[in-house]
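Revision sheet: structure tokens.
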Amino acid sequence: MRRFLFTFLTISTVSCIKPEIVQPVLYEGPLRVGENIEMFYTEKELLKSKVKAARILEFQSGDREFPEGIFIEFYNEQGKLESTLKANQAFYSKKDDRWRGVGNVEVVNTEKKEQLNSEELFWKPSTKRIFTDKFVTIRLATQVVWGTGLDAAQDFSDYTIKNVQGEMELEEENP
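Predicted:
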């Protein structure tokens, strides 16, 4: 009887303890981390762009971060280098199919030797356009133009500065 009573009391005591329900913790960090990467984007077997970065973080959403900077080369239909883009940091949003370069962003049209600088710039691959609402400086062959806001082709073949604030003619050097 004592044994039965002891067992009964033990079971009764244990059954009164409510188990703690632990909520699962959602991991929101990167699923993959890459070092010293080089990615190639092609269309119809033609190289369209090449991306180089020291570090890449890939997330479950398909978003990517390049916390140590990025360098992108854009190629034309003949496979010739058209332009380059570099930034101190970059972010890719899969949902928006949009890249964002931040900190000392530079776009160079290699054929025309033209250069754009800004602190932030967006690139949308589907439209092949770059744009920003930030301050920009554009160095052309014979002048420098600056203003706030820009919409341009990714190869920098055409562009519009939304709020031009200045323009300066450059003198040609005679040998």
